[in-house]
Amino acid sequence: MSSSTKNAKNMSFISLIPSVWFGVFLLFPILMTFLMSFQKRGTYGGVEWVFHFDNYIRVFDLIYLKIFWKSLLLSGSTTLICLVIAYPLAWALVTLPQRTRSVFLLLLIIPFLTNMLIRIYALKVITAFDGPFIALLVQMGIEVDRFTVSQNIWLVMYGMVTTYLPYMIFPLYAAMDRMNFSLVEAAQDLGACPRHVLFQVLVPNTYKAAVTGASLVFIPCLGEYLIPDLLGGAKSMLMGNLITEQFLKARDWPFGAALAMILIFLLMIFIFLSSRSKGGASGKA
Amino acid sequence: MEKLRPASPSWTRGVLYLVVAAFYIPLALMVFESLRFKEISGDWSFSLHWYQVLFSDQALMESLLRSVVIAAGASFIACIVGTFSALAIHKYRFKGVLFLDYMSMVSLVIPELVFALALLSWFAFLKFPLGYLTVIFSHATFCIAFVAMTVTARLNTLDKYLDEAAHDLGATQLQTLWKVILPVLKPAIIAGFILSFLLSFDDFLITFYTSGPGTDTLPIKLYSSMKIGLTPKLHALAVLMMVISVGLILILSRMKGVRELLLNEDS
Q1: Is residue A110 in some structural domain?
Q2: Whole-model pTM?
Q3: Residue A28 lies in a domain
């Protein structure tokens, strides 16, 4: 072993190339953004290199706090809905016979890996002014405001849930698949009803996967730009839209960078909390 | 024969069917609408008319070509860097691989938006003009970790005496890598390439931030046109993009080891 590591020294280019790449295109850009969040916006939209904290003070403006709260609320409820849907779904999936199961898995993977933009586009086709959904409502005699139907917060929620649900399903599926199902059989033999099986056998055994799934859903949700932008309209501005606005429209990059740092900070709190609850669960087991 | 697990309550299967329906009904409707054509007489009929219109649109076809070039370039870089990264972390275990390990993790968990704006600020700071190269480099960066994953999965199945055997037969480290290790890793690298191609071809947000004037990829084109309004031609464009992605996914799902990788994302 020691001789092979010694020989490996002239092979160090192997780790050099990816290290340099990640340094140049990941680490430096992030550090740069962090530094930029303390700078001042230049007169013509550039960055003036004056160190100050004004951007972070501005973040506490009520308008922005409201947007943060709304984003947190939407991401939180999306995560919760995904959890509620994914549990029974994963349970159904693991108990299907092998062949049917792989068909359904593929059916779930395809939309997961298909372009999100296309899925949003398809939703827009349905809710378009002359689309089938409005036609159906009109047929049923329901008066609707066509603008509200094609752009509203519920549509954003629907888009979020259908987009991020697979991130919850796959970890739960994998955990249940690894689980010892004789536990379920034993519970059923002892007279447990489905609800008891779910909450007293399945959930405690797949708790960690659920926490993983929750972070996989929550993290991209909080920074989501496309779904609220295309399905929500101007009324439902979320953090992702606010940040993009600073960068691509208002041209206030330092403030945008400060907002991005707040986003990272919120996510770190979330990850910290969920990793603590993970530890708690394993301590209990 | 596999042992059957006790069936779940039937309502849970109902949830499964509902979710599959929620995924596919909008897509099916979109395909339907793209094929519908209103004739002069006012009757509806099915035709590929809008696809003909789409394929004769010079600007869109240029975007398609651009998307393919960018995806191919990014995947090529990601394959080289990602394979090296996997080898460094899981085979040679050099000093400093911890940095690599952390960086690939960061590239996976960082919100896409933050990554996109960080790259934009960085390129602006370096005064590097936005264009093909910035998009390709950015895409390559988020694809590296995925290539490294497919390659690592293959590395873990390799016989650990492979190196020693090659060494005993007089091969140098470099020869072993080039003639023994890389050939066995080839299927995993190809899978990584296709996965990267798919991710790059579908990417919107990072392209949105890092592309300059005149380097619009297909998703950017679709986004900016759908902001103005939906047209049957756009339906056809969306279907075309969907067919390309689904085609790539089906190829991937037939490759050994990829599906397991996708399903075991936890831990």
Answers
A1: yes
A2: 0.88
A3: no
- Which 8-state DSSP code applies to residue B157? T
Taking only residues 41 to 80 of chain A, the set having a beta carbon closer than 8 angstroms to any beta carbon of chain B reads none
A11 in any annotated domain: no
Number of domains in chain B: 1
| φ and ψ of A95, to 5 deg | -95, 0
Task: Tell me the per-residue pLDDT of B99-121, one tens digit each, with 9 for 90 and over.
Answer: 888 999 899 889 999 999 999 99
Q: Beta partners for A40?
A: A48
B84 touches A17 (CB < 8 A): yes
Q: Which of B88, B208, B86 is nearest to B139 (CA)?
A: B208
Q: pLDDT tens across A18-51, in order?
A: 999 999 999 999 999 999 999 888 766 677 777 8
Confidence at residue A6, expressed as pLDDT on a 0 to 100 scale:
46
Q: Which chain A residue has the Cα nearest residue B7?
A: A95
- Check: CB of residue A19 under 8 Å from CB of residue B92: no
The interface pTM score, or ipTM, of the predicted complex is 0.88
Is residue B30 in some structural domain?
Answer: no
Considering only residues 1 to 60 of chain B, which have any Cβ-Cβ distance to chain A shorter than 8 Å?
2, 4-9, 11-13, 15-16, 19-20, 22-24, 26-27, 29-30, 33
The range of the structural domain enclosing residue A200 comes to 53-284
Domain membership flag for residue B78: yes
Range of the domain at B257: 49-263
B84 touches chain A (CB under 8 A): yes
Share of chain B above pLDDT 70, in %: 94
Tens-digit pLDDT profile for residues A144-192: 777 777 778 888 999 999 999 999 999 999 888 888 888 888 888 887 8
**Domain-located, residue A18:** no
Q: Do A25 and B13 touch (CB under 8 A)?
A: no
Element (H, E) at B185: helix B182-202
